[in-house]
Amino acid sequence: IGYKTEVFDQSKTHRTVTFKPNGGSGSDVKITTPNGLTVSMPKEPTRTGYTFGGWYLNSSGTGSAWDFSTDEVNKNITLYAKWRQQYTITFNSMGGSSVASQKVYDGDYVDEPNDPTRSGYYFDGWYIDGELYDFDDRVYDDLVLEAEWTKKSTSNSSNRYEDEEYTVKFDSNGGSYVYTQYVEYGEGVTFTISDE
Q1: SS3 label, residue 170
Q2: Where are the alpha helices (DSSP H) in the chain?
Q3: Contacts (Cβ under 8 Å, ≥6 apart) of 115
């Protein structure tokens, strides 16, 4: 009686998933899983100064993260750890009430905080390098935002604009020159219309 020996070739029924820490702790991890099934998630690596952001099919971490509950493995693949760096946003209220700092991931946005208060001043906004900060800008570095203030007048008015003087210029559109006027809030502008 002859016997036929068959060698089981696991490569035909199983697939290997290689997990690369991509700058994080530890070395590559290889997990073998049956073809067409999901794969178990390995222990998350760590990296100083970064937060782990999932496993991706490319080292740059673009596209969608691998979904370990639904994504099936149909061939040998390599998954790369994605790392997200956090930046600190510091609010210097410049003499006003304190505003808590924020931790923001790279590429995300700063949450605009409630306006600080300062006795005797109006809050004019958050500035960086002398320019009003745009909270629609994405963050890619640590930031220090400084409050700017306008001093209130000694009057009892609650309307900040009542304390200001305004400049009114006239464009005569080819006619005779009309002098610039400086008026207080709520005052009228006076000028003479000529019939000539």
Answers
A1: coil
A2: none
A3: 123
Which value, to the nearest 10 degrees, does the dihedral of the CA atoms of residues 69, 72, 75, 76 take? 0
For residue range 51-93, what is the model confidence (pLDDT) as tens digits?
999 999 999 999 999 999 999 999 999 999 999 999 999 999 9
DSSP state of 37: B
Q: What is the pTM of this model?
A: 0.56
Query: Strand 165-168 relative to strand 121-128: parallel, antiparallel, unpaired?
Result: unpaired
Q: Are the CB atoms for 145 and 125 separated by under 8 Å?
A: no
Cα–chain center distance at 86: 10
Gap between the Cα atoms of 123 and 150, Å rounded: 7
Task: Report in angstroms the alpha-carbon separations of 21 from 64, 66, 73, 103.
Answer: 17, 14, 19, 24
CA–CA distances in Å: residue 184 to residues 74, 106, 159: 76, 47, 13
Structure tokens at 189: 């502008």
Tell which wins on pLDDT, 157 or 152. Answer: 152
Residue 133: HSE in the Cβ half-sphere, 13 Å Cα cutoff: 22
As a whole number of angstroms, the distance between CA 121 and CA 15 comes to 67
Question: Which residue's entry shows tokens 């750890």?
Answer: 81
Per-residue three-class SS string for 93-118: CCCCCCCCCEEEECCCECCCCCCCCC
